[in-house]
Amino acid sequence: MADYNREKDRVTIEETFAKLVDLANSLSAEQRRAAEEGLSEQELALFDLVTRSDLSKADRERVKRESRDLLVKVRAAIEGVDRWTEKEQTQAVR
Q: pLDDT truncated to tens, each residue of the chain (94 aa)?
């Protein structure tokens, strides 16, 4: 019984690892970088806008937290605006 369970666990582990490798290979460079930074792609975009290369590790973590918070606040502000993407005022000039 124990041998059967060990073999079953090994197969499950190998299958899970193969799925993770496939997932990692399917990610774009930005998706990978976002995952490495522990941010969503939208949070990473905000982080990139405000970060500098000379930040300490603690400062980088603080900027990440603030990027997350800012995205939440922006989304909340946008939710309150009725159909804002359809209005002429908010559309880009072509």
A: 666 566 678 888 888 889 888 877 777 878 888 888 889 889 988 898 888 889 999 999 999 999 999 999 988 888 877 776 676 665 665 5
For 67, the domain range is: 2-81
Within a domain: residue 94? no
Give the max Cα distance, the chain. 70
Domains identified in the chain, total number: 1
How many whole angstroms separate alpha carbon 6 and alpha carbon 19? Answer: 20
Residues 6 or more apart from 91 whose CB is under 8 A from it? 85
Helix, strand, coil percentages (3-state) for the chain, rounded to 5, are: 80, 0, 20
Q: Map tokens 């939710």 to a residue.
A: 79
